[in-house]
Amino acid sequence: MHISALTSYPIKSCAGIGHASIQLTPTGLEGDRSWMLIGPQGRFVSARQFNRMLLIRPQESSQGILIKARGMLDLEIPFPEKDQAVQVEIWKDQLQALDAGDEASQWLSDFLGTDCRLVYGGEATTRKVNAPSAGPDHTVLFADSSPLLIISEASLEALNGKLGESFAMTRFRPNIVITGGAAYAEDGWRRIRIGEVELFEAKPCVRCTLTTIDPVTAMFHPGREPLASLKKLRMLPGEGAVFGKLFIPESTGLLNVGDTLSVTDWV
User: Fold this and answer.
1) Fold of domain 2-9+129-266
2) Which residue in 98, 160, 166, 212 could disulfide with 80, CB within 3.0 to 4.6 Å?
3) Which tens digits make up the pLDDT trace of 238-254?
4) pTM (predicted TM-score)
């Protein structure tokens, strides 16, 4: 088995960026979900509420981030200054982030049709990983619960075979895609090694309505697929429909497309 794709999502719920190589940090892929949109009360907003967020295409730069979308002028946003701190809320967590300014807010509000602001977390804004296996030092930035989502190509092929419809991997927003191995093999991985990097399981990834939105058009699937079928095929009692598995870095280092994955402990 080896890595076939690496993707980071600099702005939570916006389009991803593919990488041939990327550094793995304690909070996940470098820069992953380090920016986030908030509403007027400071609570995070996502594509679950505003599906057009998936059409926003970020590009990272050494000075900050560049955002693009059809019908909009490109906007380069510098990293905010430390005196631009604001209180934000994500799920049950309250924390400080840095406001990216009025120009970014206006651009995003115009595109999405709702008042919102962009905030930056960086490595100073972290939350505890929400997983039974996580220790107090295991943290994330603005990801929902865990640093990394891994899905195998074989799992998607098996799911598409059951659905009779072809869904792209981008629907499921993994950070690491694996080729080789059996369908749903990742369900049984407790600890894995990729190159010199070691990861351990957080938990299965419970899927939500985000999977029903086409990331190319931002349109909802009329039959609410693939979530509707996942609820019949892959329900985890007490949790929900699962697809893919979340992992926590045990160590850090460079990840590359083509790196070999080996399983060092099974569930």
Assistant:
1) M1 Pyruvate Kinase; Domain 3 (2.40.33)
2) 98
3) 999 999 999 999 999 99
4) 0.97
